[in-house]
Amino acid sequence: MKSISFYLVLLIFLSCGCNRTNKNEAAIKIVDNPVEEQSKFIDSQRFKVEKQTYFSLKEWNWEDRESKLTELNKEEVNKYFQAPLDSEKTYNTFYFFSIQENTPTRKSITILESDESCCNTLHLLTYDRNDKLVGKSIVAGSGGDGGWGYDAYGKFDSDSTYYFTHVELETIRDDSIGWEAEVDSLVVRFTVDRNLNFKQLSEKKFEYNKVHVSK
């Protein structure tokens, strides 16, 4: 019962005014007919989600992963990440997500990484004209385990600035009277270079408790 109550708390909290982006902007839409392929390196038919302007996994239905997204095999993971994975990521699953840019001089894609025991991470990967990986950033994430959960999301404010918000919620009391949770929120401003690599400029932290009394 505690686990169920926690996820209800997390759903209510993450649906509140903490995220000022409207629901239509945050919604993730599946592409019925992917754009025509512009390079051999990027197979547009494998990317099922439309280009993202706001990066968030909050509106994503996780039951759709296997049915609507295409999983990368081991060779494809090596092809797009172009570096050995950390040992703890060996058993994670990776899915093609969206094509952000696909031109002869630059290509940019997102790939969803799923850790079945906890969390999901959305990677933004950028390649030069020779298909070499030149940019790698985390633009969104979500997850939860037991009485803890988080949601991370962001948006490019301009070509050179990215705002990233990370919200964590942990239940510290859940009983017949109601529940209480500790909330930690971090808002980070990044500068973005031409290869979409991020460098932190500033951050703001917010901490508070959220209480609900059962009727």
TrEMBL record:
Protein name as annotated: Lipoprotein
Origin species: Adhaeribacter pallidiroseus
